[in-house]
């Protein structure tokens, strides 16, 4: 290890030290809200991208959003993709570094090096934050995704926590963008399903919703809800945003939850609208939307009631859903993606 790397690790260990955050959380008593399990209420969190200067400031931001959801009766709360980015505010001068051009190979390498070095420290704060939120409020929390190293490679990974604060599972992003490929992000290779007391849940990440097969596979594995944490780096346009979760929900007949990171910091401009979706026939206005955020910017907490049993009965009676030519798919689908 060179002198620079050694000094950097000492600095990061100090800036991301866990003792102050753990002390801050240890003084909190579990909050009790009247959370009814029937009907089931879920929450999609829209988070404004703000660079936080301390881990406690970050924790309080995330906790305040969860509290809003819980007051409205939510027992499952989903945060967005790239939820680690606000923690880069702990690094002095980071906004100037963010002004770099991520399209160049040189800077792509720099981005990868930064994620590889800082990732483990960010992960510590992330785990402490969302584990504590789940435990304090006795809810299920999909904490959004973070870019961290694992076994020498860099992945975008989302994690799920249970009411006891323990990790239930994780999901690596399966489809990466050209920019992510530039700085060496690796795609995951397995879509996982988790069986929770109220239903089966999958939570692929952002770009994964662009592809029909992701939701189709989730449904075939038994998923009732598919959660998509997003961090879209593009100017917001309503119909462009529809390319993701809304059509996937209609095709696969699942409940869809979309959490969104929004806001501009330096070269980063994230846009989107958090929302909760269902098959058209199961929504009051027959538009496929149970609830969607009013704006594509700023913090918002979206909650809605979902009826898993009604969804399952609806799927059983849906002739189109089961009208599939499996022989054709097995013969040609694999060849389409070679």
Automatic annotation (TrEMBL):
Superkingdom of this protein's organism: Bacteria
Residue span, CN hydrolase domain: 40-308
Keyword Hydrolase applies: yes
Molecular function per GO: hydrolase activity, acting on carbon-nitrogen (but not peptide) bonds, in linear amides
UniProt entry tagged with the keyword Hydrolase: yes
PROSITE patterns: CN_HYDROLASE (PS50263)
Keywords, sorted A to Z: Hydrolase
InterPro entries: Aliph_Amidase/BUP (IPR050345), C-N_Hydrolase (IPR003010), C-N_Hydrolase_sf (IPR036526)
Pfam (any one): CN_hydrolase
PANTHER family linked to this entry: CN HYDROLASE DOMAIN-CONTAINING PROTEIN (PTHR43674:SF13), NITRILASE C965.09-RELATED (PTHR43674)
Name recorded for this polypeptide: Nitrilase
């Amino acid at each position: 290890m060179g002198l620079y790397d050694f000094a950097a690790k000492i600095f990061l260990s100090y800036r991301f030290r866990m003792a102050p955050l753990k002390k801050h959380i240890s003084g909190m008593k579990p909050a009790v809200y009247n959370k009814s399990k029937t009907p089931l209420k879920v929450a999609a969190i829209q988070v404004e991208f703000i660079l936080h200067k301390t881990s406690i400031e970050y924790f309080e931001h995330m906790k305040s959003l969860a509290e809003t959801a819980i007051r409205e009766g939510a027992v499952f709360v989903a945060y967005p993709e790239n939820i680690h980015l606000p923690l880069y505010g702990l690094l002095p001068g980071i906004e100037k570094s963010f002004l770099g051009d991520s399209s160049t190979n040189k800077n792509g390498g720099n981005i990868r090096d930064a994620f590889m070095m800082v990732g483990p420290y960010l992960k510590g704060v992330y785990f402490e934050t969302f584990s504590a939120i789940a435990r304090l409020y006795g809810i299920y929390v999909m904490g959004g995704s973070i870019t961290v190293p694992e076994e020498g490679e860099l992945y975008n990974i989302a994690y799920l926590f249970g009411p006891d604060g323990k990790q239930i599972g994780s999901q690596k992003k399966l489809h990466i963008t050209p920019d992510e490929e530039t700085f060496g992000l690796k795609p995951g290779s397995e879509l996982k399903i988790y069986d929770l007391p109220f239903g089966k849940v999958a939570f692929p990440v952002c770009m994964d919703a662009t592809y029909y097969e992701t939701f189709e596979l989730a449904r075939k594995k038994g998923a009732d809800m598919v959660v998509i944490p997003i961090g879209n780096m593009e100017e917001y346009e309503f119909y462009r945003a529809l390319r993701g979760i809304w059509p996937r929900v209609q095709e696969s007949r699942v409940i869809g939850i979309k959490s969104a990171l929004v806001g501009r910091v330096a070269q980063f401009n994230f846009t989107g609208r958090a929302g909760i979706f269902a098959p058209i026939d199961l929504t009051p206005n027959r538009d496929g939307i149970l609830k969607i955020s009013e704006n594509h910017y700023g913090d918002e907490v979206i909650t809605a009631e979902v009826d898993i049993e009604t969804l399952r009965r609806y799927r059983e009676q849906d002739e189109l859903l089961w009208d599939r030519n499996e022989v054709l798919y097995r013969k040609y689908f694999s060849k389409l993606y070679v």
